[in-house]
Amino acid sequence: MKIIIVGAGQVGFHIASRLAYENKDVVVIDTDPEAISQVSEKIDVDVIVGSGSSPMILEEAGIKEAEILLAVTDSDETNLVACLMADILSSSTKKLARIRKRDYDEYHHIFHDAAPHIDTIINPEIEVVKTIERFMSVPGAVDVGEFADGRLKLIGIFMDKDARLAGVRLSGLSDKIGTRTLVAAVVREGETIIPRGDDRLYPGDLIYFISEEHGLEKILKAFNKHVKPINRAMIVGGGRIGLRLAKLLESQSIYTKLIERSPERCSEIVEQMNKVLVVHGDGSDQSLLNEENIQDMDVVVTLTDDEETNILVSLLAKKMGARKTITKLSKFGYFSLMSTIGLEQVVSPRLSAINTILQHIRRGKVLSARTMTDEQAEVLEAIALETSDIVGKPLKRTGIPKGALVIGIIRDDEIEIPSGNSVIKPNDRIIIFARRQVISKIEKILTVKLEFF
Amino acid sequence: MRWNYVFYMVGILTFFLGVLMAIPLLCGLYFNDSSVAPLMKSMAITTAVGAVLYICFRGPKTEYLSQREGMAIVAIGWTAVGLFAALPFYWNGVFDVFVDAFFESVSGFTTTGASVMTDIEVVPKGILLWRSLIQWLGGMGIIVLSVAILPFLGVGGMQLYKAEVPSPVPDKLKPRISDTAKVLWKVYALISLAELFMLMIGGMGFYDSLCHTLTTMPTGGFSTKNLSMAHYNSVYFDVVVMVFMVLAGINFSLHYQFIKGNSLAFWKDSECRFFLSAVIVLTLVVSFNIHGTVYQNIGEAIRFGSFQVISIVTTTGFATADYNQWPAMSKLILLLCMFIGASAGSTGGGMKCMRIMCCFKYCYKELFSLLHPHAVTTVKIGGKTVSDDVIRSILGFLALYMGIFALCSVLLAGMGVDLVTSISAVAASIGNIGPGFNLVGPVGNYAEIPAMGKWLLVWCMLLGRLEIYTVIIFLVPEFWRK
Where are the beta strands (DSSP E) in A164-262? Predict the structure, then answer.
């Protein structure tokens, strides 16, 4: 499978290294020789220095054999033109463009119908705002993934020190909580473990469990996390994501304050808002936070462009009494520090972009795919084809590799959280949790068996 | 620096080498000669040591290999492979001292082709096949071969590849390194088959054709005959071997493009043009020089002149004539050829045409900017600008190459070897050619060099094959610092 990536920025780099790890043929194109040499030194992919919107460069990259073209440069225009050129040269290639400007927002669906040269538009900022929204509804969750149109949720949560579930065997977990759940994975000391029934949970573990929408509250309670409605929110940083989020909160009638450092930007935002209180000032200024009653805030979201500021403002807000914080972080390197520093919930535009892109790259009938916070594992939602190997026999006898787990089966309106005896029927939607080492195997299982043809 | 991982990889390589010993073993069994016992013994020991290293140092799967680790694996791997490949020679009783066996084996792996065997024809066939086979393996690179066929090496494959096949401007034929390695080995094997076929058509037996093919394609130069190619004294064989030496001296990615249907691939590549014109011009000069002095017949002058020029410039080292008897000018040209070497990305050694070209163009640029101090100029190869980083690394390489050459020839002369022999032996070892002049000339061999000198030359051969940096990095104190 050949994939061309235009733009060796952070998203491009990261996607390239993910795909190279899975033994796919990747070609990365960028105009910056420095960025390209970084890529060619660190990842096993082919590189070309040049503009991704140039037909010559695309031909050189082998666009004709490519299955997917990802245009993820910083320039929306370059991305659009790259897709257009790719379409002219090879119309069968699937083309994804990252478009970030707000001006295009309203037109995404029009593009979909009227611009056949772009198959999908990715806007990580929209994804980030969606993630923040999900985080607000699930207290204490580090990671929230939605499957089966939101009916099934995969939630990552840290086990507190005094949690009453500490030391409980997994096999007895559902009884103790009082609703059916399945622990998909435990991240302990930086390692992702797929647990068995006799494993226990310990304080400090990051636990990923699957739950149906209606049972969620009970489970969260069992983990000492209590759901309270959010009435007051503060946003620090009025960039593109901040503005989007403010608009969303405004539409949900949540009382919102937005702190922004640049006076020009402040007046720009004020023009677009009706009820949101826009405050001009530095978010890391303690007296300003006091003045704006930080201690009464249900949630503080830090979204400035500076990672370190975000971390510090979140910690400060928590210390001053804010109930909950959500922090924007882009550097993957900081993720492992989350629990050490005491950050509760973290969103990353890059991770969001990668999540969206992954869905389109996965083979077989994969409906959605998302990666976990530390990128050790991935969750796939897929349709079980009749010819696939996993259909028609109890799960424990199928050839699902070690390191992967079926965590949900959806048949029509019914949701089943499976055990070893469950049987997948053709056309079921299944949700699979897989460590990244076995992802290529899972992809193979999900695709049609070639021997039949 | 994760040493356990380095030894784990070296273990895999060693085991792999042991498995490959089955090939000469089968040959020995077929001819039922005295090579069977030593080969079996070597194979048992090599695979056992490989397996032990593999088991002892097996650790958690790693996803990243640093450049430093890559270099260490390649340098230690090559030394280990050289040591174990020497065992059959030693146990067969070809040599009395181990250093001779080691010299022969490293000379094989590095495709140098310098021999310390005084009488080759009495050596059993299994051993001689092993001697040719290690050249063939070393030519395209045993680590590249491992990367190609052992999928689990894929992760750090790139670092290993870069350390074993350093090239001034690296080119990847396929997005993934293991695919690139596979393609290169396929092309290599395909051309080798063609040569085998051509030699057999000419009436050379299968065994000798195979051995000579296995040493022509890597530009190695080991022969199964005492007189090297001169043994056959046949124009047909000379021409076939010449053609394949030239092919082996051309960048293999051009062969790949040619096979893929790009018929102008060779012509469009400026390095290839430079290499071919150098071959033609030097051949003409040498032939003109030896015509009338050594050979009275113009045809003979061209035949022997061209064979020798090609053999040396591609760093193969086959001989059809004793060029020790040639006039000084021809000898000097051959000595220069040792430095020029073949193309980048070929199996040949030397400094590589690409570097020489860049160096010349850079010098011209410097002169030009004396005349036009404000002119903006760049060095271009094949229409593409060569970045200053690359130029700098090329100049650094050339300086190191010459520096090591000078130092080692002084050291060798200090061991009591005469001037011409020391200079040519070191040049022929770093350049991976094989025969030099005087004592180590086409009719002589390296047996006369003192033991210490042999160790020195072994080091030179490894330096030359791995293009200096990978080997010499171990001598830099910074390498050992945590």
Answer: 182-188, 191-193, 206-212, 232-236, 255-260
**A interface test, pick of B71, B176, B260, B378 with most A CB neighbours within 10 Å:** B176
Question: Considering CB atoms only, which of A25, A33, A41 is closest to B176?
Answer: A25
CB-based burial, A152-189: b 16+ in 10 Å, e otherwise? bbbbbbbbeeebebeebebeebbeebebbbbbbbbbbe
Residue A159 CA to residue A35 CA, distance in Å, equals 40
Interface check for B176 against chain A (CB to CB < 8 A): the answer is yes
Identity of residue A445:
I
Confirm if B316 and B433 have CB atoms less than 8 A apart. Answer: yes
Radius of gyration of chain B (CA): 22
Superfamily of domain A2-122: NAD(P)-binding Rossmann-like Domain (3.40.50.720)
- Taking only the tens place, the pLDDT of each residue in B421-451 is 999 999 999 999 989 998 888 888 898 899 9
For the segment A353-370, the average pLDDT, to the nearest whole number, is: 71
- Are B157 and A44 inside 8 Å of each other by CB? yes
Q: Please indicate whether, in this complex, the C-beta atoms of B175 and A21 are within 8 angstroms of each other.
A: no
Whether A382 and A446 have beta carbons less than 8 Å apart is answered as yes
A352-452: which CATH number, 3.30.300.30, 3.30.70.20, 3.30.70.1450, 3.40.50.1580?
3.30.70.1450
Residues of A within 8 A of B179 (CB-CB) are 25
Q: Quote the pLDDT of residue A452.
A: 41
* Per-residue pLDDT reduced to its tens digit, A195-233: 877 788 888 788 888 888 777 777 887 777 777 788 899
Question: CA torsion, points A342, A344, A350, A354, in degrees to nearest 10?
Answer: 120
Burial of A58 (0-12, 13-18, 19+ CB in 10 A): buried
Residue with tokens 């969103």: A347
**CATH of segment(s) A232-344:** 3.40.50.720
Would you call A383 exposed, middle or buried from its count of C-beta atoms within 10 A (0-12, 13-18, 19+)? Answer: middle
- Tell me the CA distances in angstroms from A337 to A190, A270, A306, A342, B421, one per residue in order: 10, 36, 17, 8, 63
* Contact between residue B314 and residue B249 where contact means Cβ atoms under 8 Å apart: yes
Contacts of B154 in chain A (CB under 8 A): 23, 44
Residues A210-243, buried b or exposed e (16+ Cβ, 10 A)?
A: bbbeebbeebbebbbbeeeebebbbbbbbbbbbb
Q: Does B175 touch chain A (CB under 8 A)?
A: yes
Of the candidates A213, A209, A202, A192, the one whose C-alpha atom is nearest the C-alpha of residue A434 is: A192
Q: What is the architecture, at CATH level 2, of domain A128-222?
A: 2-Layer Sandwich (3.30)
- Phi, psi angles (nearest 5°) of residue A153: -120, 140
Return d(Cα A148, Cα A144) in angstroms, integer. 13
Residues A30 and A11: their CA atoms lie apart, in Å, by 13
What is the rounded CA–CA span in Å between residue B480 and residue B482?
Answer: 6
Residue A409 has pLDDT above 60, yes or no: yes
pLDDT tier at B314, thresholds 50, 70, 90: very high
Q: Report the alpha-carbon angle A191-A371-A129, nearest 5.
A: 125
At B63 the three-state DSSP class reads coil
Reduce the DSSP state of residue B261 to 3 states and report it. Answer: coil
Q: B436 with B424: CB under 8 angstroms? A: yes
User: In which residue ranges of chain A is CATH 3.30.70.1450 found?
Assistant: 128-222, 352-452
